[in-house]
Design goal:
Elements: E1 2-11, E2 14-24, E3 29-33, H1 40-47, E4 55-60, E5 63-64, H2 72-78, E6 79-82, H3 94-105, H4 110-123, H5 139-151, E7 157-161, H6 169-184, E8 188-192, H7 196-202, E9 205-210, E10 213-218, H8 220-225, H9 230-239
Parallel strand pairs: 3-8, 3-9, 6-7, 7-8
Antiparallel strand pairs: 1-2, 1-4, 4-5, 9-10
Helix pairs in contact: 3-4, 3-5, 4-5, 5-6
Bound molecules: adenosine-5'-diphosphate (ADP) and magnesium ion.
């Protein structure tokens, strides 16, 4: 589903991604861990072209992101992204946040879009919140709306960038539950997370990044129980 080959990304003189090679199969859940500043967010942002790629290649379901003929709107609808800080539209209701994309980008009519929003809100456990504004929601509820909004575009892949890092601890569980349901339904997912429990339970594979490189990757048990790279060992000794 995703193939990343020798991906480099620089901001001016600062090289943030230094040759990333990775593959994600359909229905696979890949968790990305690593210290702050190691390039995890930049990596995700390159995968849906929120950042231009400096060199290398990213192919998603057969389409190269560096192809000049790439339709960026289509790509973004196929690659859903959920951010740490939700990024909901504050002046739109929950329902409008969800229906906007399908109406604008997928030419869905209002009635269909409303129906879809109702289904998705049920899925994330927020059926009663369709007509409220984001400001009246808890962080966990906002994040579940953000997930519903991304799903409304019927993405082939979902990217999560520390989706629970901004949440009060008691709100983390509900968001992780929604993500687990998605994983069980067979969604292809890349999840940058500090939730090692989630990575261990739901990850088919775990990637450890440091200083713009993939230092180690393996099954959760390989990475968590028997890390080979000293940097992985040091990182895990701090977070586990
Ligand atoms: P992580 O998500 O692992 O914490 P990031 O991908 O956010 O890491 O950042 C990696 C490095 O890239 C950091 O040094 C950060 O300051 C830098 N960086 C990220 N985005 C930009 C940007 N738009 N302009 C300049 N530097 C950036
Ligand atoms: Mg980040």
């Amino acid at each position: 589903m995703i193939k990343v080959t020798d991906l480099h990304k620089s901001f001016g003189d600062l090289e943030v991604l230094k040759g990333i090679n990775a593959e994600v199969q359909e229905k696979e859940v890949v968790c990305v861990i690593g210290p702050s500043g190691s390039g995890k967010s930049t990596f995700l942002r390159c995968i849906n072209r929120l950042e231009d790629i400096t060199s290398g290649e990213v192919v998603i379901d057969g389409e190269s992101l560096t192809d000049p003929k790439l339709n960026i709107n289509k790509l973004r609808s196929q690659v859903g992204m959920v951010f740490q800080h939700f990024n909901l539209f504050p002046h739109k209701t929950v329902r409008e946040n969800i229906t906007l994309g399908p109406i604008k980008v997928k030419d869905m009519n209002q009635e269909e879009a409303n129906k879809l929003a109702t289904q998705l809100l049920e899925k994330v456990g927020l059926s009663d919140k369709a007509d409220v504004y984001p400001a009246s929601l808890s962080g966990g509820q906002k994040q579940r709306v953000a997930i519903a909004r991304a799903l409304a575009m019927s993405p082939k892949v979902m990217l999560f960038d520390e989706p629970t890092s901004a949440l009060d601890p008691e709100l983390v569980g509900d968001v992780l539950e929604v993500m687990k349901d998605l994983a069980k339904e067979g969604m292809t997912m890349i999840v940058v997370t500090h939730e090692m429990g989630f990575a261990r339970e739901m990850g088919d594979r775990v990637i450890f990044m440091d200083e713009g490189k993939i230092m180690e990757e393996g099954t959760p048990s390989e990475i968590f129980d028997n890390p080979q790279n000293p940097r992985t060992q040091t990182f895990l000794s701090k977070v586990l």
